[in-house]
């Protein structure tokens, strides 16, 4: 298996862990729990994509 997949999974889990430490209630309307979780998930995928491409650029 390629190192790309491992990096994507690692950075996705890491970014979910990091983004879960932010109090999204301050930025979202009250009662929008599902939307806040989807926002964290979307941001974590975007952040993991950027970090993986950044690391792969240094490896190659």
Features:
2 helices; mainly alpha; 60 residues
What does this structure look like?
The protein is mostly helical. The protein has helices at residues 3-19, 33-59. Helix 1 (3-19) crosses helix 2. The longest helix is centred in the last third of the chain and has 27 residues, at 33-59. The mean pLDDT is 89.
Give the gist of this structure:
The chain is mostly helical and 60 residues long. 73% of the residues lie in helices and 0% in strands. Helix 1 crosses helix 2.
Multimeric state: single chain
Helix proportion range = over 70%
Shape: elongated
What is the first-to-last residue Cα distance? 17 Å
Total helical segments = 2
Q: Indicate how many domains the architecture comprises.
A: 1
Overall pLDDT confidence: 89
Please state the structural category.
mainly alpha
Low-confidence stretches: none
The SSE order reads HH
Number of strands: 0
Strand content: under 5%
Q: Main beta sheet: strand number and arrangement?
A: none
Rounded to an integer in angstroms, the radius of gyration calculated over CA atoms is 14 Å
Note the topology:
Blueprint: H1 3-19, H2 33-59
Helix pairs in contact: 1-2
